[in-house]
Amino acid sequence: MRKQFFIFGITFLLLSIIITYHYKYSIFFPLTVFALILLGIANSFQHKHAILRNFPLLGYFRYLFEFIAPEIQQYFIERSTDGKPFSRNQRSLVYQRAKNIDATTPFGTQLNLNHADYEGIKHSIYPAPVNEELPRVIVGGPDCRQPYSASLLNISAMSFGSLSENAIVALNKGAAKGNFYHNTGEGGLTDFHLQGGDVTWQIGTGYFGCRDDHGNFSAEKFAVKSNNPLVKMIEIKLSQGAKPGHGGVLPAAKNTEQIARIRDVKPFTTILSPPGHSVFSDAKGLIQFVAQLRELSNGKPIGFKLCIGHTEEFETICQEMIHQNCYPDFITVDGAEGGTGAAPLEFSDGVGMPLEPALIFVNKTLVRFDIRSKIRLICSGKIISGYSVLKAVALGADMCNSARGFMFSLGCIQALRCNNNQCPTGVATQDKMLMKGLVVTDKSERVYHFHKNTLHSANELLAAAGKKSFSEADINIFMRGDEFKKLSDLYFPDILGNALKE
Ligand SMILES: Cc1cc2nc3c(=O)[nH]c(=O)nc-3n(C[C@H](O)[C@H](O)[C@H](O)COP(=O)(O)O)c2cc1C
């Protein structure tokens, strides 16, 4: 192709000179052709990009198409029920609820319900009245001196750094209006989180906001910040579903001077938090740390967040709680299907337990050790609708967190650019120009409405199942497609042929 490029380029250049000379056009045209030929020559001799070496100018189209592939996929190819990680239908649901407009769909389901994977709620012929009040849950075990009344749905951990300043402020103001909490994420507690909304302060392995000069946990700094009245709960981050066993990642492009100052790190370098904590390295140390944070914060609810890996490790933590007679006030279970700003693909695709089995396991284990009543169970992992809230509660959760649901409510379009600072909606970027697109006053209203309308939908589903309160919801209100397969075997025995006769 290089030979063709040279032949075509020189012919085109000569033609452009002749046309320009003949018709007395501006010299700009042949000069542009000449510049492109020079660029092509430079490309054909460079060693880094094979495509540009072989196709000196056309090769650029590959980069262009690769850059806009997510948009092409989303706008021209994707159907309403596809789209990953969230389908167009799921995203639209959040947008409509956030805008507080009609969130109904016409004409019936687009899903294939006669399928083993189908999942639905068993409604009752005698529905309960719909509760107009949004459900709340008290968090605070036996050792807690400042229990907190939390909403059933809250904003999951997302740091300032991963999200923009405008996004954090809009989330916090929405939380303030709707009376639910906003988890800071591991990037530290900043002024943007202190806009009036209730805060859960997350402490990750980098101890951002409460670290000493060597990057170790600083009890003094923690004590000052944790006693801020807006900080209602403290969460120790052990792991996150999208990258369990891997520390947090803040790409260099997003580590601006402002963020570096808040986190006490070098600006414009990639910040990798260590995979594990330096304060403890076993269950005994973890539970001691829970006790230490409780003392330093004057008895605020303390919990930890994890994605389940080795189940025995969780059992050991339970034994240690009993041994030390010290219980976290809450445990947050994050499913492996959870989101992230940036993670290695191997970790997102192939490490950790998904939410459903993890939640069932943690709930049952706490019951088995007879400590379930002392601890609130929070969960996260693709919770964006009333249905997913109700299902999480039915599987054993007391409360839910949503990260990407609230991102959609801020206007996120799933452009999949959180990791390169080019988020076009200003949600997950530190680019000031892009951030301007996100207007805080407008988006905080959407955050408020998404929360309210989603919980209202959960209330309606609960009532349809004939239940008056979330404490009555258990897995028996759900049915699955594989059950019908068995039922149809019973009702239509002919299809079993001889197998049944035997
Ligand atoms: C942009 C982004 C940043 C996140 N940052 C954190 C974090 O700092 N700490 C953490 O524990 N989880 C973090 N998470 C994970 C979420 O808190 C949540 O556990 C996970 O995304 C599952 O919820 P979802 O399915 O509603 O998104 C982040 C997720 C996203 C999408």
From TrEMBL:
The chain crosses the membrane at residues 5-21, 27-45. Pfam families: Glu_synthase (PF01645). It comes from Flavobacterium kingsejongi. One of its GO terms (molecular function) is glutamate synthase activity. Belongs to the glutamate synthase family. GO terms for biological process: glutamate biosynthetic process. The keyword Zinc does not apply. This is FMN-binding glutamate synthase family protein. PANTHER family: ARCHAEAL-TYPE GLUTAMATE SYNTHASE [NADPH]. The keyword Transmembrane helix applies. It comes from the Bacteria. Keywords: Membrane, Transmembrane, Transmembrane helix. Gene3D superfamilies: Aldolase class I (3.20.20.70). Residues 151-467 form the Glutamate synthase domain.
